[in-house]
């Protein structure tokens, strides 16, 4: 599980950082994205759906949103 801390960054930066990092991992590997951007709860699931990645978990952790994303076949 690779951790990506995008706290303090606003849309579209958390998704752009996720997109860049997910390109460099293998299928089925996972990234844990931590962000405090309120738009991320809409942007991250949309990105995953569009790109064929799997959103495994969304949770709230100390005022931040935590996403676990598994790389799809793309």
Please count the beta strands (DSSP E, at least 2 residues each): 4
Order of the strands making up the biggest sheet: 1-2-4-3
Shape: globular
Unreliable parts: none
N→C terminal distance: 19 Å
> Number of helical segments?
2
In angstroms, what is the radius of gyration?
A: 11 Å
Share of β-strand residues: 25-35%
Q: What's the overall average pLDDT, rounded?
A: 96
Largest sheet: 4 strands, mixed
Return the string of H and E elements.
EHEHEE
Helix fraction, binned, reads 25-40%
Structural class: alpha+beta
Q: What do you see in this structure?
A:
By secondary structure, the chain is an alpha+beta fold. Helix content is 30%, strand content 34%. The chain has 2 helices and 4 strands; from the N terminus they run βαβαββ. The protein has a 4-stranded mixed sheet with strand order 1-2-4-3, with helices on one face. A hairpin with a 2-residue loop joins strand 3 (54-61) and strand 4. The longest helix has 12 residues, at 40-51. The two termini are 19 Å apart.
Question: What order do the helices and strands come in, and which of them pair?
Answer:
Blueprint: E1 2-5, H1 13-22, E2 30-35, H2 40-51, E3 54-61, E4 64-70
Parallel strand pairs: 1-2
Antiparallel strand pairs: 2-4, 3-4
